[in-house]
């Protein structure tokens, strides 16, 4: 029987990778839904290749252009409220890979319609995990993390009780400036910051990787997903990105997970998580890398973003939405050459330390509206604050 699948954000990097995997094995899959924003041409191409009958195009202008084409055998919708029209019963697997906080609402809405959901949207997990977890339990839906680090931890734990975990280690390549003298940080260009040594990523995540802010986000995700305290989560610098996670257990065992620097592998394994004998084409073990793992503790003076960990509340709160929003807005300013690279982290820290924002550490997000409202409020305030601090 074919596995029924939906891809939220199928024209993005994660979505395209998953689509390519399904295309090679299309006899075993029936894609019920693809979604996109502005790239309706790519969406149509995908729909034709896999005979997908339902599309959601969230950009109004792109939706209207597509609608005028009147393409046979394809139903096109403009918002995620259409899920109830598309899904008559639970499907087998959903990939949620819409970028940014925009991905939280559709993730929450689609959980009830699927048996398994793989979530690649870090903002959703960071800002709304308690809401996601509630829906997962309510609808008995299985969750699978997609980020290479969290998928690796999930794989290593293998259904063990989380209290059995002594410590987990998330690895970081150190980005393009691991060995760059700090005195040169003020001269770093956008082009240099986008040139990641081991991963190919979008602009925003590339900057987060250069500052190591992405590792703070991954620590928050790990704390939420695996129900751990922050003192059980550590970051290790690992330049060749061969080891993706290390889990130390209370029974004295320590497990590590390695794979090539490709998101193809974790994405493939979320799709085939119930088929352990499924063969994937991959390179042989790299003994050179394995014999030279070069793991080390990060320099907190060089990577000041890692100091943000001490400001984080132990429970899910609205403070995480402030952190995500502040980082988004300040990275945008750097990408527009309005601030210097070495100003990114100091500005974020100044913003999250403000009393009007730090009070949100004690407030749990009760619904999606609370998160989106705060996101808009912070965005409105960020610009004037940034120029004041600059």
- The strands making up the biggest β-sheet line up spatially as 4-3-2-1-5-6-7
Multimeric status of the protein: single chain
The helicity comes to 40-55%
Strand content: 5-15%
Mean pLDDT level? 93
Sheet with most strands: 7 strands, parallel
What does this molecule look like?
42% of the residues lie in helices and 15% in strands. The chain is of the alpha/beta class and 390 residues long. It has 3 domains: 3-146, Rossmann fold (3-Layer(aba) Sandwich), CATH 3.40.50; 147-261 and 274-312, no CATH class; 313-390, Rna Polymerase Sigma Factor, Chain: A, CATH 1.10.1740. Strands 4-3-2-1-5-6-7 form a 7-stranded parallel beta sheet, sandwiched between helices. Helix 3 (60-69) links the parallel strand 3 (54-57) and strand 4. Helix 5 runs parallel beside helix 6 (122-139), helix 6 packs parallel to helix 10 and helix 13 crosses helix 16 (368-389). The radius of gyration is 21 Å and the shape is globular. The N and C termini lie far apart (59 Å).
Quick overview of this protein structure:
With 390 residues, the chain is of the alpha/beta class. It contains 16 helices and eleven strands. Strands 4-3-2-1-5-6-7 form a seven-stranded parallel beta sheet, sandwiched between helices. It has a four-stranded mixed beta sheet with strand order 9-8-10-11, covered by helices on one side.
